[in-house]
Design goal:
Helix content: 10-25%
CATH architecture: Roll
CATH topology: SH3 type barrels
Number of strands: 6
Shape: globular
Number of helices: 2
Largest sheet: 6 strands, antiparallel
Distance between the termini: 12 Å
Radius of gyration: 11 Å
Length: 78
């Protein structure tokens, strides 16, 4: 079963492994700097009432990302 999705598709409490970053430039560099690398475990820990941004636990830190940026991050559910 193929469970590859965009990071924005996770709901609160779900966990996934990063497969790919489909972006370039400054935002890609920032995500890499905070540790969002291939094979990194991420967990969705919260979402704003309107659905944007979404908070994730990445390597022990809580990071809020815009849905638009999450769409370019490929993950595999665990």
């Amino acid at each position: 079963m193929d469970t590859r999705i965009g990071l924005h598709e996770l709901t609160v409490g779900q966990r996934a492994i990063v497969e790919s970053l489909h972006m370039t430039g400054g935002m890609r560099r920032r995500l890499l700097d905070i540790g969002l690398l291939k094979n990194t475990l991420v967990e969705c820990v919260g979402q704003a009432p309107g659905g944007d941004p979404i908070a994730f636990c990445i390597r022990g830190a809580i990071i809020a990302l815009r849905c638009e940026d999450c769409r370019h991050i490929g993950v595999r559910r665990v």
